[in-house]
Amino acid sequence: MRALILLLLVSCAPRYSARPPLPFEDFPYTSVDGKPWPVKTLALEGTALQLGLAVTPKIAYVELNPDGAQSVLLIHGLGSYLKFWRYQVDELAARGFRVVAIDLPGYGKSDKPGSFPYTMEAFAMVAHEVIGELGLGQTIVFGHSMGGHIAMTLALEHPDDVRALVLTSPAGFEAFSARERAWFESVVRTELFLAATEEDIWNSVRASNFARWRDDLDWLIEERVRVAKTPGFRPYVWANVLSVRGLTHTEYTRQNLGSVAAPTLIVYGTDDQLIPNPFMHGGHTRDVMEYGHRGIPGSRVAPLAGCGHSVQLDCPKEYNAAVAAFLAAVAPTQ
C-alpha cells in the first residue's frame, strides 16, 4: 500500500527535468519567507595543511546574528547542504544565538576537490577550523545524519570546541561488518548517482527521508534534478561516494561514546527509513538511537512520532520545540 501511494504521488508531482541547469552556486539560500541569507566563504588553510592538500579548498557558510553571545554550528548530512536547516537558522537567530551553517567540502556552494578524503575525521577537522577561525568559542553543535557522526567525532577530538550536541537522526551509532562495508562500497558508485532519473529522485528523497511530505519542500527535488545537468555535479557525486565509505566506519564513535562529555540531545523520527540501513541488516531506529543514548553519559533522547529521517525538515515545529527545551537547559542565558 505504501508503495502504491508513493507511485501515485510521484505520478502527480511537478516535473523539473525540462528546466535549465541550476549550478550549485546559484542555489537560492533563503529563509522560509524568501529573505536571502548572506553567504560567505572561508579558506580551510589549516585543514589543507593537516591533510597535505596541494590546493586549499574554500567552504561556503551562512552566519546570522553575529553578535549573539552563544554560538551554534549547523552541520548537514550526506547528499545535502546547509539549506536543509532552513527551518532552524532563522529560528535560532531569533532566539538570540549566533548561528553559523556550513556547506561541507564537496557539498552545496563549497569547493569539491577530488583530493579531499571525505572521512568523518577530515570533516571534523573542517568543523574545528570553522570554530577557531570564526571565533565561535564553545559551540552548540547540531549535526544531521552524517553531520551527527561528524559532530560526535568533533566532540571526541576537540572537546573544548563543544558546549553541547544536538544529534539529529545521527549516523555513527550503527555497527557495520567488514562484509557489509565491502558490499555497500561496491554498490554505491558514481554510476548509481549519474543514472538516477527524476522519478528515482522523487522516490529516494520522499520515501527515504520524509514521512510528512509537503509541497513547500519541492525545492529539494527541483534543485537536485536541475543541478545534475551541470559540470559541478560529478565532483559532488564523488564526494558522496567517498562520504558513504566513511560513514560505515563507526568503530571510533561506537567505542568512545562514553568519552563524549558535552550535554547531548538525540532527536529522531520514529518513521526513519534510513537508520538502520535497510539495505544491509535492517532493524529498528529506536534500538539504534537507544544504543547511543545509553552510551553517551547523561544524554537525552527525543523520538518524534510519525516523522522521517530528515526530521528537522519533515517535522520542523516538533523538532524546534524539542530542541528549544534542551537549549533552555544547556544555554539558559539565551
CATH fold assignment:
Rossmann fold
Number of strands: 8
Compute the separation of the termini in Å.
46 Å
**Count of separate structural domains:** 1
How would the blueprint of this fold be written?
Blueprint: H1 2-11, E1 39-43, H2 45-51, E2 58-64, E3 71-75, H3 89-94, E4 98-102, H4 120-133, E5 139-144, H5 146-157, E6 162-168, H6 178-187, H7 190-194, H8 198-209, H9 218-227, H10 233-247, H11 251-255, E7 264-269, H12 285-295, E8 300-304, H13 311-314, H14 316-330
Parallel strand pairs: 3-4, 3-5, 5-6, 6-7, 7-8
Antiparallel strand pairs: 1-2, 2-4
Helix pairs in contact: 4-5, 8-9
Give a short summary of the structure.
With 334 residues, the protein is of the alpha/beta class. It has helices at residues 2-11, 45-51, 89-94, 120-133, 146-157, 178-187, 190-194, 198-209, 218-227, 233-247, 251-255, 285-295, 311-314, 316-330; strands at residues 39-43, 58-64, 71-75, 98-102, 139-144, 162-168, 264-269, 300-304.
Can you walk through the features of this model?
The chain is α/β, with parallel strands linked by helices and 334 residues long. The protein has one domain: Alpha/Beta hydrolase fold, catalytic domain (Rossmann fold), CATH 3.40.50. The protein has helices spanning 2-11, 45-51, 89-94, 120-133, 146-157, 178-187, 190-194, 198-209, 218-227, 233-247, 251-255, 285-295, 311-314, 316-330; strands at 39-43, 58-64, 71-75, 98-102, 139-144, 162-168, 264-269, 300-304. It has an 8-stranded mixed sheet, with helices on both faces. Strand 5, helix 5 and strand 6 (162-168) form a beta-alpha-beta unit. Helix 4 packs across helix 5 and helix 8 (198-209) crosses helix 9 (218-227). The longest helix has 15 residues, at 233-247.
